[in-house]
Design brief:
With 225 residues, this protein is α/β, with parallel strands linked by helices. The chain has 4 helices and 11 strands; from the N terminus they run E-E-H-E-E-E-H-E-E-E-H-E-E-H-E. Strand 7 and strand 8 form a beta hairpin. The relative contact order is 0.16. The site of zinc ion (ZN) has 8 residues, from loops.
């Protein structure tokens, strides 16, 4: 008998999964959890966040496009920005005070924003001098370089660009004074890997989180601009 264990969702403990959008499979495996509707990236994020959750309890969190990757109770305060609702912030110009939220989360939103560098500057400003911006974007592990065509293409879900492996370099070139950590996570259900970017204008909080990730271990790469 092969030593086979059915995959378990690390978010809800569910063991039943369905195909993704338009019947999509990942490595031949159904990626969507029937219990919590999580996809690969949500479980990867959940794994990375839960490893450092003890460091999040003093953070006020702002999440653009709330999803299953985050537990509200990890944070001192949690606010979700829902596009098109009354509770929506413009990522390029939030109108929020500097340092209003110590932890700003954006998963698969940046590709929909006309000026992504301005959006990152704004999120870093809102996260304050030692806060953290947590980002995921589509396809940085699958493309050599970012291609930005400057308009929202309806054929690919209104994306302005395809991101490539040069993403941290693009940020570092455009914005001085940042600490950028690329953390590699693996989805326990499909085996898919993805990169989560953590950006801060300070070093202390990221350094403490890196010490926690080293115990999992989570492979990290670090850029300083
Ligand atoms: Zn689940």
């Amino acid at each position: 008998m092969p030593n086979y264990q059915a995959p378990v969702c690390n978010i809800c403990g569910g063991t039943n999964f369905s195909a993704g959008f338009k019947g999509r499979l990942a490595h031949g495996v159904k990626p969507m959890c029937d219990g919590c509707n999580s996809m690969e990236r949500h479980r990867i994020l959940y794994e990375l966040y839960s490893a450092v959750s003890s460091q999040l309890s003093d953070c006020r969190a702002l999440q653009f496009a709330p999803d299953a990757s985050v537990k509200r109770e990890w944070f001192a305060e949690y606010v979700g920005s829902v596009y098109g609702s009354a509770n929506s912030y413009n990522m390029m110009d939030t109108g929020l005070d500097e340092g209003r939220f110590e932890f700003v989360i954006s998963n698969h939103v940046l590709e929909h924003v006309p000026d992504d560098i301005q959006a990152i500057k704004e999120m870093v400003r809102v996260s304050g001098p030692d806060g953290i911006v947590s980002l995921t974007i589509p396809t940085p592990t699958m493309r050599w370089e970012t291609v930005d065509w400057g308009w929202a293409d309806p054929d690919i879900n209104y994306h302005y660009r395809d991101y490539g492996a040069d993403f941290p370099q693009l940020i570092a070139n455009a914005i001085p004074g940042l600490q950028i950590v690329s953390a590699s996570g693996r989805d326990p259900v499909t085996g898919i890997h993805d990169i989560v970017y953590f950006i801060s204008s300070g070093e202390a909080r990221l350094k403490n989180m890196a010490a926690k990730w080293a115990k999992v271990p989570v492979p990290l790469a670090r850029h300083v601009s």
